[in-house]
């Protein structure tokens, strides 16, 4: 058994419950085609750095998400062609509301984009997002509010 404040000896059992969330986040960051690679790199990094995990600072999920974020950034640096939305610029693409929304999300400031990805696509609650982003839950709510306002301004809101 592990010492207090560290990852248990059974890393697989410790990390496995978080894999669906980590995979969804990796897919948001680098696209579905590269998500498995990024997640694998992140898990290897987490395993190698497991002695740096401190349970007194929170649950494993924010720590693991931070590693996925780091590995995704490195992956994007190595592969500049990670999500080329520009490839879909024909007449049909101009009318595709999903592409419009994706472009609008990509245009958000990084902190707002991260909050939107974690809340709407990874399905984390506000408290978990606050732990990941290292801020208060109220800051997450305000960031999401600002992001929604920016998205409405970019693509409009035909549903009201």
UniProtKB/TrEMBL annotation:
<dbReference type="InterPro" id="IPR036388">
    <property type="entry name" value="WH-like_DNA-bd_sf"/>
</dbReference>
<dbReference type="Pfam" id="PF08281">
    <property type="entry name" value="Sigma70_r4_2"/>
</dbReference>
<dbReference type="InterPro" id="IPR014284">
    <property type="entry name" value="RNA_pol_sigma-70_dom"/>
</dbReference>
<keyword id="KW-0804">Transcription</keyword>
<keyword id="KW-0238">DNA-binding</keyword>
<keyword id="KW-0805">Transcription regulation</keyword>
<keyword id="KW-0731">Sigma factor</keyword>
<dbReference type="InterPro" id="IPR013324">
    <property type="entry name" value="RNA_pol_sigma_r3/r4-like"/>
</dbReference>
<protein>
    <recommendedName>
        <fullName>RNA polymerase sigma factor</fullName>
    </recommendedName>
</protein>
<dbReference type="InterPro" id="IPR000838">
    <property type="entry name" value="RNA_pol_sigma70_ECF_CS"/>
</dbReference>
<dbReference type="GO" id="GO:0003677">
    <property type="term" value="F:DNA binding"/>
</dbReference>
<dbReference type="Pfam" id="PF04542">
    <property type="entry name" value="Sigma70_r2"/>
</dbReference>
<comment type="similarity">
    <text>Belongs to the sigma-70 factor family. ECF subfamily.</text>
</comment>
<dbReference type="GO" id="GO:0006352">
    <property type="term" value="P:DNA-templated transcription initiation"/>
</dbReference>
<dbReference type="InterPro" id="IPR039425">
    <property type="entry name" value="RNA_pol_sigma-70-like"/>
</dbReference>
<dbReference type="InterPro" id="IPR013249">
    <property type="entry name" value="RNA_pol_sigma70_r4_t2"/>
</dbReference>
<dbReference type="InterPro" id="IPR013325">
    <property type="entry name" value="RNA_pol_sigma_r2"/>
</dbReference>
<dbReference type="GO" id="GO:0016987">
    <property type="term" value="F:sigma factor activity"/>
</dbReference>
<feature type="domain" description="RNA polymerase sigma-70 region 2">
    <location>
        <begin position="16"/>
        <end position="80"/>
    </location>
</feature>
<feature type="domain" description="RNA polymerase sigma factor 70 region 4 type 2">
    <location>
        <begin position="100"/>
        <end position="151"/>
    </location>
</feature>
<dbReference type="GO" id="GO:0006950">
    <property type="term" value="P:response to stress"/>
</dbReference>
<dbReference type="InterPro" id="IPR007627">
    <property type="entry name" value="RNA_pol_sigma70_r2"/>
</dbReference>
């Amino acid at each position: 058994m592990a010492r207090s404040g560290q990852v248990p000896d059974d890393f697989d059992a410790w990390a496995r419950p978080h894999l669906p969330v980590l995979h969804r986040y990796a897919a948001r960051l680098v696209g579905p085609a590269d998500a498995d690679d990024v997640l694998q790199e992140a898990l290897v990094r987490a395993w190698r750095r497991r002695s740096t995990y401190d349970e007194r600072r929170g649950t494993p999920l924010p720590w693991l998400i931070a590693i996925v974020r780091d590995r995704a950034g490195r992956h994007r640096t190595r592969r500049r062609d990670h999500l080329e939305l520009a490839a879909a610029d024909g007449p049909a693409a101009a009318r595709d509301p999903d592409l419009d929304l994706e472009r609008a999300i990509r245009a958000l400031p990084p902190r707002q984009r991260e909050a939107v990805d974690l809340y709407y696509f990874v399905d984390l609650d506000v408290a978990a997002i606050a732990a990941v982003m290292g801020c208060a839950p109220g800051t997450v709510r305000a960031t999401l509010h600002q992001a929604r306002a920016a998205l409405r301004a970019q693509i409009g809101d035909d549903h009201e």
